[in-house]
């Protein structure tokens, strides 16, 4: 019998949207023959899922679930082929159901999520007649005292979670804390922030930017004596573009997010900290 590798199972799963265990079994039954394994899955009642395999799933929704007290939340990408299906009640209900399962179970990885909702996914494919797939997901459970702010854009294609912490438990009862968390989530959605601050960026990424900016500055004919200063200025501008705390607030770009947070500390009479965030934009690979 041919050796069944993880890569083979992954490929079959991507081509059929069938669960990992079923894919592995199909390959074992078919001596590792990919096309035969696809037919085997069709014979087992997964024909619609298999026939739809390979078609792009660039549409869909970011589903979400939030605890009533905003102490925990989950978001997940659920993808389909057309905007028509993504706007339908059945697909929206399915996305909400997947988000609820992610919230309740906090799967370890994509395979665990597939095992959790794979059967339901295939039922949706058969019912709605489009290929569908599950994308990235995240669960935030706030370290207390703290809250999770969630924002899903009106088109359903961008979802953000931001955890904001306080020092005093009494601050959780103040609506301003949750409002700050939600406003920050909206900020991340709008700007595409990739890190909280410069310390959270990969040093290799920063060095790569430096090399690019330095060469660009030299090509512009700037004197060698001021190149380093210009490069540093461009690095600072880069931080303002990608680091949440360095960005100008979308509602008032004269105010930086770090200054907005400091102002809220004064308003709330407490130390407020932005702990982490995650941003999912439908179809992005990372």
What does this structure look like?
With 286 residues, the protein is an alpha+beta fold. The chain contains ten helices and eight strands. The strands form three sheets. Strands 1-2-3 form a three-stranded antiparallel sheet. The protein has a three-stranded antiparallel sheet with strand order 4-5-8, with helices on one face. Strands 6-7 form a two-stranded antiparallel ribbon. A hairpin with a 5-residue loop joins β4 and β5. The longest helix has 19 residues. The two termini are 36 Å apart. About 3% of the residues have low confidence.
Write the layout of secondary structure elements.
Elements: H1 6-16, H2 20-29, H3 34-52, E1 59-66, E2 72-80, H4 83-86, H5 89-105, H6 110-128, E3 133-141, E4 146-152, E5 158-165, H7 175-191, H8 203-219, H9 224-242, E6 248-249, E7 252-256, H10 257-268, E8 273-281
Antiparallel strand pairs: 1-2, 2-3, 4-5, 5-8, 6-7
Helix pairs in contact: 1-2, 1-3, 2-3, 5-6, 7-10, 8-9
């Amino acid at each position: 019998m041919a050796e069944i590798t993880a890569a083979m199972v992954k490929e079959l799963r991507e081509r059929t949207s069938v669960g990992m265990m079923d894919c592995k079994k199909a390959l074992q039954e078919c001596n590792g023959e990919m096309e035969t394994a696809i037919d085997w899955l069709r014979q087992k009642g997964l024909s619609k899922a298999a026939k739809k395999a390979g078609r792009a799933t660039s549409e869909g929704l970011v589903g979400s679930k939030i605890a009533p007290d905003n102490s925990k939340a989950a978001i997940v990408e659920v993808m389909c082929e057309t905007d028509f299906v993504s706007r339908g009640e059945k697909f929206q209900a399915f996305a909400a159901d997947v988000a609820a399962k992610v919230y309740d179970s906090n799967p370890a990885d994509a395979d665990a999520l597939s095992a959790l909702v794979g059967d339901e996914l295939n039922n949706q494919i058969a019912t709605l007649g489009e290929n569908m797939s599950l994308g990235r997901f995240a669960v935030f459970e706030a370290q207390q005292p703290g809250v999770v702010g969630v924002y899903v854009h009106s088109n359903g294609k961008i979802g953000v979670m931001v955890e904001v912490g306080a020092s005093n438990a009494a601050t959780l009862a103040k609506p301003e804390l949750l409002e700050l968390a939600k406003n920050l989530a909206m900020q991340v959605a709008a700007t595409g922030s990739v890190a909280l601050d410069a310390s959270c960026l990969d040093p290799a990424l920063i060095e790569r930017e430096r090399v690019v900016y330095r060469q660009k500055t030299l090509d512009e004919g700037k004197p060698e004596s001021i190149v380093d200063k210009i490069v540093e200025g461009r690095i600072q501008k880069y931080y303002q573009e990608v680091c949440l705390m360095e960005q100008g607030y979308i509602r008032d770009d004269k105010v930086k997010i770090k200054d907005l947070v400091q102002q809220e500390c004064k308003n709330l009479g407490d130390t407020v900290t932005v702990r982490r965030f995650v941003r999912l934009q439908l179809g992005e690979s990372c």
